[in-house]
Design goal:
The structure is a single chain. This protein is α/β, with parallel strands linked by helices and about 180 residues long. Helix 1 packs across helix 6, helix 2 packs across helix 3 and helix 4 packs across helix 5. The protein has a single domain, classed as 3-Layer(aba) Sandwich (Rossmann fold), CATH 3.40.50.300. The protein is globular and about 45 Å long. It is built from 6 helices and 5 strands.
């Protein structure tokens, strides 16, 4: 069984907070490629930003997600990813019409967890400049992309972070 679990879904849906909770519980986690790219680009004056050069951003996210998978291969146990390769490929495909998803393959656990749109907690920031409507469109693309690649998607309930972590671990058969 593949121990690489993706937590994807709507921007601003609480993924990063959830990953922090799983990390606090002793699980390996991998931060979202997009956030890391935005931080790097902003720090260096780069242009591969989703609001400036979204195609370059998506291509960097694909490369980073592949690198993350390579690095995680050396780890033992479950690894939880804040987004991943499918997210980046779906974004590139949306932008360019390239069949980017066709080249992704199945590299993660068969069960992918999606954070649904949650307007009550959605917040923009320096790295998340899009509004909730754009985030919902993204969620809808991902809710189709993952099953199209053979993944089972499970929506994470809108509950407290500890309960959300318990939900994921229970669905995977991992002792909380």
């Amino acid at each position: 069984m593949n121990p690489f679990v993706v937590i994807s879904g709507c921007s601003g849906g609480g993924k990063s907070t959830l990953l922090a909770e799983l990390g606090r519980r002793g699980h390996r986690t991998v931060d979202e490629p997009g956030r890391r790219i935005v931080e790097e680009e902003m720090a260096t004056g780069g242009h591969a930003l989703p609001w400036e050069d979204p195609v370059a951003f998506a291509r960097r996210a694909i490369a980073m997600a592949l690198s993350d998978l390579d690095a995680a291969a050396a780890w033992d146990g479950w690894v939880f990813f804040d987004r991943g390769l499918v997210d980046a490929a779906a974004f590139l495909q949306h932008l360019t019409g390239e069949d980017a998803l066709a080249e992704v393959g199945r590299r993660y656990h068969e069960r992918v967890f999606l954070t649904p749109p949650w307007p009550e907690i959605y917040r923009g920031d320096a790295a998340r400049r899009h509004d909730l409507d754009v985030a919902i469109e993204e969620f809808e693309r991902l809710a189709k992309a993952y099953p199209a690649l053979g993944y089972e998607t499970v929506r994470i309930p809108k509950t407290g972070v500890a309960e959300r972590a318990d939900f994921i671990l229970a669905k995977l058969g991992i002792d909380a």
